[in-house]
Amino acid sequence: MKTPTIRAAVVALLLLPVAACAGSPQKGGSGPERDTLVWASSAAPNSLDIAHGFNNASTTIQLAVLDTMVTLDAKGTPAPALATSWTQPTPDSYEFTLRKAVTFTDGSPLTADDAAYSLSRHLDPAVASQAASYFTTVKKVEAVGTDRVRVTLTRPNTAFLSVAAIAWQVVPRKLAEAHPGDLGSPEVGTIGTGPFKVAKFSLTSGTVLERNESYWGPKPALRRVEIKAISDAETLRMAVRSGEVDATDGLNARDARKWTGLSGVTTSFYPGNNIAYLALAVGNGPLKDVHVRRAIAHAVDREALTTLMTGGHGTIARTVLPMPQMTALYGDNMPKFPDYSFDLAAAKAELAKSAYPDGFTMAVPYASGSDGATVMQAVAADLAKIGIRLTMEPSPGDKYMATLMDHRGLGVQYVNLSYGTPEPVEVLPDMISRAAAEPQGFNFSGYGSAELDARLDALAGATGQERQDQVTALLTEIGEQVPYVPLFHMDNGIALRDGFTATGLSVWNPNFFAVIRPAGK
Amino acid sequence: MRGVLAGLLGLAVLVALFGSHLAPHDPAAQDLALGVAGPSAAHWLGTDDLGRDVLSRLLAGAGSALLWPVLVAVGTTTLSTSLGLLAGYRLGWIDAIMMRTVDLAIAMPGMLVLIVLVGVLGGGYGWSVLAMAVLFTPGDIRVIRSLTLAQRELAYAEAARTLGLPPRRVMFRHLLPNLAPTVVSNALLSFVAALVSLAGLSFLGIGLPAGTPDWGLMVEENRDLLDLNPWASVAPVVLITLVATSATLLGDRLFDTLSKGGAR
After folding, report:
1. How far is B38 from chain A (nearest CA, A)?
2. Which CATH superfamily groups domain A36-66+194-270+493-518?
3. Is the dihedral of CA A346, A352, A357, A358 positive or negative?
């Protein structure tokens, strides 16, 4: 069971960081100045503890209430938060210096012991942390003196700081120890050092946050945030339109046209840390043949598909890494990877080289009513042009996910995942490790080998140019062997009613409530 | 009025039979570059998000939307009439077992059973049609049985028995024609219920594969396009409503007309 892995990716998927909204359009509110924000998410938060609520709705609140030891700056580089600085005495250890005079919202002082325990608890089976997979390389966490925390890893891990920026949320040891299994629940709640404190947390009637007047950092402009869940996209849009809701991140780029036309509402889209792709099960019949896989890659009109699925707020994917990760890794010096342009003649030529020159028929399960249904219809129409007939098999969403995660009946699958860090090592093991090719893993292609696993292990400890070269080599191999057909990257979006603005949001740190402010403040 | 209703249903049947040939475009042909668009000279009811012609899909989808409910209605009517006649005429242990079974079946939440059967257990669309026929049957059995109980005591039925006619002949040659008004109207009501229920299943995304031209599925697939091309989802709703209403009213009229014919 690799639930933590799933959770890590799904959570990351849902973290959907808000990218640079700097420069986003702002409309000045004409009404009275307001410092209470009504926020709606598309799902209800289930826990204020990342160990038990590692999902978008929950982490949105956690990030407002709980500080992490480090954070990520706009470029995705680890930056100080509760830790003012850190050193790396050896390749497999870090030593953090704690910010002084920080208190929890109950008035108790933050200690190094609190910080150390907040990380080590994720390794405790009694906690059963959903973030445990982020810290599998953590060997030991200890308070050193009153203001330092030492973390020893089992092996060098360049992604440690990035994942710590998401999941090393600091809570009082006393509270966390007393509630290993239900910290963050409505009954227990949580206490943090963040810019907000929890005034109310209910699974059914919503959450209310109030500004932490003793916050150590810049005080948020909002005094109060009321959070509700509206799961139906159209209902959410109507709620924003009517003014019942002031802001939301629950809009889909595909629906951009519906949102951008709303009077009194400003929508902003920004690159999301996500990747949509087709997974081709390399062990399944015709898909074993690399020429078939290349034929499929050539036959799918990704440009049209990107326009369809992103409403113009997305880009064609050239590799299996999310675009912000590519940008963080390569900057402007993006290497050229094997790419398969939409070319039916080339697709037919590739198919002619395979054992299936006349095509074949393959069953394709999909989740009814999902984006996947639309994508697979378009893909099926494209592949039919070269003789590959996909038989669509509808399934309820939950059942489809269960079947998919069990890796049953894998063939051609549409997958769209989002991640939380700028680290390729967060994504690549999902794609090509043999461990992830087992049930509950995300390697739906089944592509992998002992040699690739060794290269992934080496990548985890690589830095600088060596790291970049290793990622390039892996992406090149994926491009040549085509276990995946990258489709598109979809922008994330945020909608704000007039009267509120948001500046300084970062794809790597979606702390919405700290950066949304009443217009003019 | 009856002529109008019959005409509407007749038209629906013609479209169901020949809709694919009448469609101005290939109902499956996609034009992603065009995407969703409102009505135009080329596409009278616009297109859906995959750029498919809505009118063509409506015409081609009529067959799927109407054929399956007809099968349900035929299955339900055949089963319920046979079993209702049998229970009401033979009475005794046959009646007792059948009625307790009917009581049990009526207590079951039909739609939920269908969703579990088709959605969770993975039965195909054919299974949902078969299950629907079975699930719709108990109510009709009870109605037919109660009518049979009344008819079997009438003089013509008594005379038939006195003549020594076998029960099957009495039931199907003498009693059944006198139940015809109810049987016919029940059949039409079953058709309507199946039409709406199957559209509901399609709307829930259970049953027909995505992309199949089908009115219920079109409502589900295009409901997010209301702002961009409302016809893509409104038109199939209107057609489902029109056919269902016509069939219901026609059933009423036929019941009245056949009832006035008197018993034989």
Report:
1. 14
2. Periplasmic binding protein-like II (3.40.190.10)
3. positive
